[in-house]
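Researcher: Good morning. I'm working through a list of sequences from a screen, and I'd like to move beyond sequence-only analysis. For each chain I'm collecting a predicted structure so we can compare shapes side by side. This is the next one on the list. No need for commentary yet; just the structure.
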Amino acid sequence: MDLVIVESPAKAKTINKYLGSDYQVLASYGHVRDLPSKDGSVRPDEDFAMSWEVADKAKKRLADIAEAAKSADRILLATDPDREGEAISWHVLEVLRSKKGLKDKPVARVVFNAITKSAVQEAMANPRLIDEALVEAYLARRALDYLVGFSLSPVLWRKLPGARSAGRVQSVALRLVCDREGEIERFRAQEYWSLAAELATPSHDTFTARLVAEDGKKLTKLSIGDEADANRLKTLLDGASYSVANVESKPHSRNPQPPFTTSTLQQEAQRKLGFDASRTMQVAQRLYEGVDIGGETIGLITYMRTDGVDIAPEALAAVRGLIQSDFGAPYLPEQARRYFAKAKNAQEAHEAIRPTDPARLPADVERRLDRDQARLYELIWKRTMASQMASAEMERTTIEVEARSGAATLGLRATGSVVRFDGFLALYQEGRDEPEDEEGGRLPPVKARDALDKKAVSASQHFTEPPPRYTEASLIKKMEELGIGRPSTYAQTMTVLRDRGYVRLDKRRLMPEDKGRLVTAFLESFFRRYVEYDFTADLEEKLDMISAGELSWQAVLRDFWRDFQANLDDIKELRVSEVLEALNEILGDFVFPSREDGSDPRICPSCGDGKLSLKLGRYGAFIGCSNYPECRYTRQVTEPDPESALGQQAMTAEGVMLGDDPTTGEPVTLRSGRFGPYVQLGSGDKPKRTSLPRGWEPEAMDLDKALQLLSLPREIAPHPETGKPITAGIGRYGPFVSHEGKYANLDNVEEVFTVGANRAVSLLAEKKKGRTGAKEIKGLGEHPDGGAIQVMEGRYGPYVHHGKINATLPKGKDPQNLTLEEALELIEAKAAKGGKTPAKKTTTKKAATAKKPTKAKSTKSASTKAKSGPAKSRTKSEG
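Model: Good morning. Structure tokens for this chain:
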């Protein structure tokens, strides 16, 4: 029997069905080893030798794999077909070697781009050795990320308290967001005007033409800069006679976009489906690993981490056949379209993301999928089909109009575009980050020298707008253009920036937090080279050359570390005061905005002669006065919105005054405490206080909202059975209704103030019957042993549910971002403790004697000379 090792249990279940009883398929559950988070895990002085540590959660799985390997005839490593997959196979192989479980048994690597029966069987028939160059590229990236993060983060902690971490790709992505915010802040709107005339043709059709020239001089967008000039030109147009100067119609084609790569899928899924990058990859992973279709688990899409745009010949033929049958011959080009990847690294340029079987229509599989899966599959299917369809044929018409007013001659222009043949647009049109300048539709038929009648003239005022903030989609697109990061890293980069509190999402736009701007300013001041776009892109190119076998991974690390270490040594000698002064300069416009009276924005408004400067406290940066402790003026780094309650006066110990309670006459204030913002009624020893619920921003608080919160808990009505009151309030676990110590959750905070007696009684009754104890947040798919896995929202927070096992999510883990693999690990850990309830602690000698932790294994290099390197010989794969 052959032992097949994959990384995912869902993948193992699918592949096992395809291979039959001659194979045993086991999952590693992703990476099994990593670098310990401590000094010395990567040792530059030993030519970048690395110490690897087996994760606690992987020890039992590796033991099971090692045990199965003893009786296997052959070991087949079938992890994903990319650098990370190659690394997982290498790690598993190294562990098996260390356990002496291989002996002389043959070991091979197999890769497949789709989890279908034919793809898996073909891969098994064509094994290869581990690709040493891909493993070396992984080692170089892992070492670089460790050295940058583990060396730079402690410097940040010491010199910039409150900053959490820095990373090789993460910091450059953050700089892009912060640079864009700086552009927006420096932007000054410029007034401009546009003029247009509504004109009628001899046949009484109307169209609108825009003013584009005056006396032969072309007018640009900003040429008409004020109302006086606009009114002068409007007067001329009002008194002018109009005629057609020229008519030109030109055909043009619009070609379809290539099928999806990882980054284009992430971008389009955000534009059209509202998915962030992480959610897109999680849903795509489930579609790739397989879903139950008619009693058989089938992978619906090809591998979703790729920068390739090619499609396999057999799939291409299937797509073209479907276009012919479903759309007709006019929609099928004579030749199949060929696309070429822009990526420089051929090693990762696998096939594009496409349906494994194009004939499997979205409507056919929709009922087998959850909503997210169905929508993403439809997006991938449509993009794949459209990529091989005929171009859309358009006709663009331009009418040039001449307007004569006395001695003045004005030029106007109307443009229109019509679709002569829709082609691929019949199925799919790519989304846009920003709205495009729209042309008019069909223009009426006219010919040169036709007289035109003026119907109306309009002058419109406009102001230039700042560049838009990045969305995740546009940031990924920009990073790809600059050559920063790679497809497999984008989703994780976006997640890290949010989790570290460096950026936040506001209407899908990425906005840097104060902490993120301070970190970026620090890195630009003292580590500028390492957040330069060109430097980072050049390093990425070298890493790609390692994966192609063109560069030594240790040589690349030596070049990097020599300069980086010297930079680190210089920074360690800096005093915090020097760091702050540098940040004051680079962030001056941001932290010390201009004052309306023109006074120096750095003069303390409290004492009048102290100088404001950035200060660092235990919890991060703030603005303080140089005359401390005589002057204790402080404020947050950024000024609050002047239109909000917090912006009307600085937050002090006495809080922000919102008004007086009309019943008691006591003051109502908005304050900030240890656990966040809250509202308070009155003062004294025990004033009434209520924290702001999640989703309520301090800037939006007013007296009415504060009084609503302070009125809680609210009595709704007597219970019809007991006569005792039903109340509504907000507790530790959210909004609720209660009666005699029994609670039922409400859907949202607003319902606390509006819920009536009937709904409250109904909720309490349902809770008593056990029907509303938990709500499903999302489904994750099938457990390898059968049964659905669900993420639920319970009274005490989100948890994973399978059968009789409920496993609480780790603190801070977003339930929307939980993967099937993570859920399986939680379920397994909970089951080991006894399912629903944790195992009771024992005091027996056996329980008290813990095994000594195993020492971390050391790996000096992955080269052919190193003992722990990958296999000496290899056959290069096209993937």
